[in-house]
Amino acid sequence: MPKYKCLFLFSLFVFCFINLALAQVKDTLLKPIDTIKTTPIRVVRIDSPKKTIDTAKAKYVNPGKVAARKAVFKSLIIPGWGQLYNNQLLNERLNAKGEKTGHFWQKTYTLSKVGIIYAGFTLLTISYIDSRNNYKIFLKEAQIRALNKLQTDPAKKQLVNPDLVRYGDTNVTDAQAIYKRNSQIVIFSYFAVYAVNVVDAYVAARLNYFNIDDSLSMKITPSLMSNPNSMYGSNATPALKVSLRF
């Protein structure tokens, strides 16, 4: 009996499996696979012309700005080099106009700034050396006097500077502080002269490309301006007319 029971269960399992397989095959036959993928169609407007970019158009370059950058760069490397460069620009501009000579004072002014710059550096250097020497003298004197106050044995006391005997201890300390401050001011002045050198080179280079020829003129003439709100009954008001010619 168990043998028939196992056979019955096996037959039932096979029957269910066959029915499931047939149903799957039927479903695949009813629903065919669509292998063609739909792609969106892009609408192209034929009547819209494309904008063409003119690559041959040259970009505007400001010559004054370029010259100013070069002048600043040269002045940063060597003080006064930017002024010499500006003098070269001046000569090129005059030669382009056909003016071989002339503008003597303008050239002299441009070149004299180089001498002023180095004269300033020279005076500052002399002042710095003098301040440092005096600072060391008064510093040494202050140290000697401070050590002598601590010595109880007169034989071990050091000799003071005979040129500074007339100065008291407070005066020696004050002089030392003054000369030290002067040295610091001179160092700051070095940077100030250096900065002025760079700024002057920049401004002069930009001015070389400004239009300052003889065609520029300004005329001021008296005129009358209408004034409908005048309380005196007159519509004309005195005025000045300014005319600029380029």
Automatic annotation (TrEMBL):
<keyword id="KW-0732">Signal</keyword>
<dbReference type="Pfam" id="PF18935">
    <property type="entry name" value="DUF5683"/>
</dbReference>
<dbReference type="InterPro" id="IPR043738">
    <property type="entry name" value="DUF5683"/>
</dbReference>
<protein>
    <recommendedName>
        <fullName>DUF5683 domain-containing protein</fullName>
    </recommendedName>
</protein>
<feature type="signal peptide">
    <location>
        <begin position="1"/>
        <end position="23"/>
    </location>
</feature>
<feature type="domain" description="DUF5683">
    <location>
        <begin position="67"/>
        <end position="246"/>
    </location>
</feature>
